[in-house]
Amino acid sequence: MASPDSSRMLPFRRVHEASEKFVEIARALQRQSVEMTKRHDKQLSVFLRCVSIGCIIALALLAWLPGTIVTRTILGGHAEHFIAYMGTSILMGLAFQKGPRPTTQFLLIMYAGVLEAGQLYSPGRHASLQDFAFSAAGVVIGGLFLSIARSRMLSWLRRD
Q1: Quick one: which of 34, 58, 81, 141 could link to 135 by a disulfide (CB 3.0–4.6 Å)?
Q2: pTM of the model as a whole
Q3: pLDDT tens-digit profile of 61-82?
């Protein structure tokens, strides 16, 4: 025959066992969630790297196309250079987060110089120091924008 104390403890034991099972399930879900997050982060990283490489290729194609094929926007050449290199700088900063950003920016500015000098050999195109300056400014402003956005995001995340 069960003692009166053990019959009173039975509901508490069941609640305790149920809570232990709940904790086990919660931990399993958390591990699964972390694995999924890592997988999605990797997929996003691969996607951003592919887009960055696409931007690098597009910059070369647009810089070296003959002048008769290129159609300009209403913004003008300087704004086009600035926006194209600012966007590429931001995408490269997002794609290659672990690498040194000043080195990446320096390499992108050097790439802009090579593409600008290569226009000397493209029919109907000419190299311009002003175009190079706007390209370099786009790289620097894109890098600064990304740096400020990262610091803001980190400060917001620390508040919570």
Answers
A1: 81
A2: 0.74
A3: 999 999 888 888 899 889 999 9
